[in-house]
């Protein structure tokens, strides 16, 4: 007896993992207890195949949902961020036409580079060039901040533990989102980004002196939920956001830095 199952779009039928075990179970039962026991064993085998099929189907749906979430984050962090930055009227109104054009060009170049990198990561391409340290990566983020925005200060402790590359990328993108939120919403004059070792890992704190908000009355948007909190927690880290009206906002990110070669789960390509 064998059990056939459908594993998802674009695939042919596959033998269930329990087929061989079911056959052994049937033969053993027939020899020991006769065909009545075979019928019982057959029922168990059919049930096992059905359970395996449901598990595989659930795993496929979960993989598709994870892939969809990553694509939505990529669109939010690149195209949407670019359009929102360009539409910041308060900042643009204070600039001359030449300065406004230079600002828009700089934003377009940065977002194009981010989108190109995101497409490469989604396609499984290895990053080009030498690997930067976490402090160097965040220094690059600070340089991306618009010149007409708040003053950003980076404070990095010495001898920082280094997360594995894919976790470092997660911290980079979550920090970029936190800084983007400061530009769009905080009306801050100063932002401090601190990096330090903490709890066998590394901690990043982004604190601004902007208008703040009441977390009990303001629902987190897509960027906060997905590009910061969910992104970091899916990578095995932790994220906390604290704020109060008139007292600025504090975003804390933590990621383990233990040596590991395990990558975050990715959906199987069909």
TrEMBL record:
**GO molecular function annotation:** kinase activity
Q: What is the lineage of its organism?
A: Bacteria, Bacillati, Actinomycetota, Actinomycetes, Micromonosporales
Fetch the Gene3D superfamilies from UniProt: Histidine kinase-like ATPase, C-terminal domain
Q: What is the protein's given name?
A: Histidine kinase/DNA gyrase B/HSP90-like ATPase
- A single Pfam family it belongs to is HATPase_c
Q: Which UniProt keywords apply?
A: Kinase, Transferase, Two-component regulatory system
Q: Which domain of life is it from?
A: Bacteria
One GO BP: phosphorelay signal transduction system
User: Which parts form a coiled-coil structure per UniProt?
Assistant: none
Stretches assigned to the Histidine kinase/HSP90-like ATPase domain: 171-257
User: Which InterPro entries does the UniProt record give?
Assistant: HATPase_C_sf (IPR036890), HATPase_dom (IPR003594), Sensor_HK_TwoCompSys (IPR050482)
């Amino acid at each position: 007896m064998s059990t056939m199952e459908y594993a998802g779009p674009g695939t042919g039928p596959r033998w269930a993992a329990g087929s061989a075990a079911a056959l052994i179970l049937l033969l053993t039962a027939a020899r020991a207890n006769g065909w009545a026991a075979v019928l019982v064993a057959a029922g168990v085998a059919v049930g096992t195949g059905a359970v395996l099929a449901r598990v595989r189907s659930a795993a496929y749906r979960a993989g598709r949902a994870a892939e969809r979430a990553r694509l939505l984050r990529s669109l939010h962090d690149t195209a949407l961020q670019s359009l929102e930055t360009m539409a910041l009227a308060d900042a643009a109104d204070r600039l001359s036409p030449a300065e406004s054009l230079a600002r828009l060009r700089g934003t377009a170049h940065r977002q194009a580079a981010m989108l190109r990198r995101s497409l490469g990561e989604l396609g499984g391409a290895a990053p080009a060039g030498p690997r930067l340290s976490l402090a160097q990566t965040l220094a690059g983020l600070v340089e991306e901040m618009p010149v007409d925005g708040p003053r950003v200060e980076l404070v990095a402790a010495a001898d920082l533990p280094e997360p594995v590359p894919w976790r470092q990328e997660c911290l980079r993108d979550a920090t970029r989102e936190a800084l983007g939120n400061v530009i769009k919403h905080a009306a801050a004059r100063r932002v401090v980004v601190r990096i330090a070792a903490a709890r066998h890992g590394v901690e990043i704190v982004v604190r601004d002196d902007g208008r703040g908000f009441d977390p009990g009355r303001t629902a987190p948007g897509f960027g906060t939920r997905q590009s910061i909190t969910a992104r970091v927690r899916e990578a095995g880290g932790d994220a906390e956001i604290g704020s109060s009206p008139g007292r600025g906002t504090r975003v804390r990110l933590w990621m383990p830095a233990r040596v590991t070669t395990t990558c975050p789960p990715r959906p199987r390509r069909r």
